[in-house]
Amino acid sequence: MREQHLRPSPISATVDFEADGAQHGFLRLPHSRDDSAWGSVMIPITVVKNGEGPTALLTGGNHGDEYEGPIALFDLALKLDPAEVRGRVIIAPAMNYPAFLAGTRTSPIDKGNMNRSFPGKPDGTVTEKIADYFRRVLLPLADIVLDFHSGGRTLDFLPFCAAHILPDKAQEAKAFEFVRAFGAPYSMKMLEIDAVGMYDTAAEEMGKIFITTELGGGGSATALTAAIAKRGVANVLRHAGIIAGEIEAQPTEWLDMPSGDCFAFAEDGGLVEFLVDLGETVEQDAVIARILPVGRTGEKPFEIRARMKGLLAARHYPGLIKAGDCCAVLAVTV
Ligand SMILES: [Zn+2]
C-alpha cells in the first residue's frame, strides 16, 4: 500500500475522536508565514459521541463560497446534545477553512481546490495536507459521509441531494436511500465532469456511503435553501440511526444526468441572457441562453442550445460569462 510510505499528517486535532460527550476544537495545521512565523491554520471541528454506534462525517465549506453547508453545520455543532446521539457525529463546517474565510472557491494560500486535491499529500500544499488528513484520518472513522455543496459565486442550482452511480450496487443503493432520507426538493443521480481528485471519489473508493448536495448558489444562501440543509442533515442522522425520531419526509423529484450531453459550455464570452429559468423544461435543440457580444454593437449573439431535452438544473450565475464556462446543466426526470 502506498500509504505506508507516507509520512504522518502534520495536522493535530485538539479533540479526542474516541471520547464521549460534545467537544468543540480545531484541526491545527502548522503554517509558517510572513505574519505568523510559527502560526497555524485552525480548522473548526466538533465531535459529539455517545457510546457505540455508527459515525457520520459531515462537511461544509469544501468550496469556500458555498454557504448552506456551513450554516447548517455551525448550527448543528451548537445544538447537538450527546444525550440525543447513539454513535458519533464529526462536524467540519468549513473544510477548506482558508477558502471559507476568504469567501472564495479555492484557497487564497495555494489556490488549492479542495475537491480536486484528493488523495492529498502530507508534505504538499496547505490544501493537499487538509485533503490527506480527511482521507487518512477522518474518512476511515466514518460510515456515512455528507459533503455539502452549492453553486458558489459562478453557478446556481435547483436544490438537490445527490449520489453517484457506483460499480458496487449495494453501496450505491444505500447511498440513494440516504439521498431519499435527506429530502431535498430534487434528488439527483449525479454525473461528474471529471471525478479525479474529488473527496467524493476518495470516500466511495474506500467503500463509504457518500452523499452530496447542490443547494442553490450565487455566493449566498436563501432562507429556503438554508432550511433544506438543516432539515436534510437531521434526516440523514435519523436515517443512520444516530439520532432518534421520524424522518421529516418531503416530496422529491428524482433527476438523472444521463450523459455528457447534459452540459452546455460557452464558446464565446459576453453578456448572458437566459431564455429559461431553473426548473423549466427545454426541448432538444432549443435555445437555453444567448451570449451577447459586448466588444461593440451590431454583433449577433451566440446561442447556447440544448443537446438533449431536459429540465434546467443548473446555470451560470453572474451576468457576464467567459469562453469555456459551464453555461447550463440539464437533467431528465426519472
Ligand atoms: Zn462545491
UniProtKB/TrEMBL annotation:
GO molecular function: hydrolase activity, acting on carbon-nitrogen (but not peptide) bonds, in linear amides; hydrolase activity, acting on ester bonds; metal ion binding
InterPro entries: AstE_AspA_cat, DoeB, N-alpha-Ac-DABA-like, N-alpha-Ac-DABA_deacetylase
Domain of life according to the entry: Bacteria
N-terminal signal peptide: none
Cofactor(s) demanded: Zn(2+)
Pfam families registered for this protein in UniProt: AstE_AspA_cat
Sequence ranges assigned to domain Succinylglutamate desuccinylase/Aspartoacylase catalytic in this UniProt record: 53-239
Record keywords: Hydrolase, Metal-binding, Plasmid, Zinc
NCBIfam families in alphabetical order: ectoine_eutE
Name this polypeptide is given: Succinylglutamate desuccinylase/aspartoacylase family protein
Organism of provenance: Sinorhizobium fredii (strain HH103)
